[in-house]
Predict the structure.
Amino acid sequence: MRYRPLGDSGIEVSEIALGSWLTFGKGISSERAIACVDAAFGAGINFIDTANVYGQGAAEEFLGEVLANRPRDSYVLATKLYFPMSDRDHGLSWEQVHKQLDLSLGRLRTEYVDLYQAHRFDVETRLEETMEALTDVVRAGKARHIGFSEWNAEQIQRALDLLPSVAKFVSSQPQYSLLWREPERAVIPLCAANGISQIVFSPLAQGVLSGKYRPGEPPPGDSRLANDEMNFFMGRWRSDAIFERVQRLHPIAERLGISMAQLAIAWVLREPNVAAAIIGASRPEQVQENAAASGIELDAATLAEIDGALQA
């Protein structure tokens, strides 16, 4: 496992981060989830990402229990807030930042998180109020650093314009993959120029880039696409045209002696501004396979071959 700096934080994180969106506390059994966490630590992963809204607190509660016996300095823990936790609890107001972090800390059984992230931009709350609240929790020691997820370049710049009177963001969490390269337009260049790293989610495009889905064929029975509780965000990638393009990557992965998933993860890690790629897993074998993408380097000729294979 290789490690990279998390923005200007001074923290080193594993290139592979363990996510918990559709799995921990809800999507898979506790036994399998524990096995996935154990596999992550065994592979050298030190970075764990969650959010209060995952399972409405269930993911944080699971992590609080399973991490309780591990030294707190042996892992980097990140959580988020924004999405509704009740009819009255949502957004990034001063009150919600403080309230939701305290509740998250209780579920996670820790006195602080290493990274507290705004899960989306809150258009209903003054940015100054949000940034003041996030600065408060950093000064109080409840969060070591702050980040955001899926903010656009204009929103990021507005926060940068408030410096130095507020805490500085050190991370951005966008969706980024071979099939979704939008962050390259403006977000990555702006962040790279300002000491903000990317922690990318869905590097496998909800599993499509693993190559398991084939045009004209039903999805494997144990796949995310076949699971109605876990496939509700896969509409963008659910087409035979995309499946056919992804299948063209198979010869490239085979020539390199790696899996399709490892190829896709290595591709996002080729970007220097990416600190980590978040993986979700329902089996420890998936954790081990994806973790092995760390350290795989793709040369210019291979990158060009990948681009050519994915052209519509």
Remarks:
- Residues 3-207+271-296 form a domain with the TIM Barrel fold (CATH 3.20.20.100).
- DSSP finds eleven helices and ten strands in the chain.
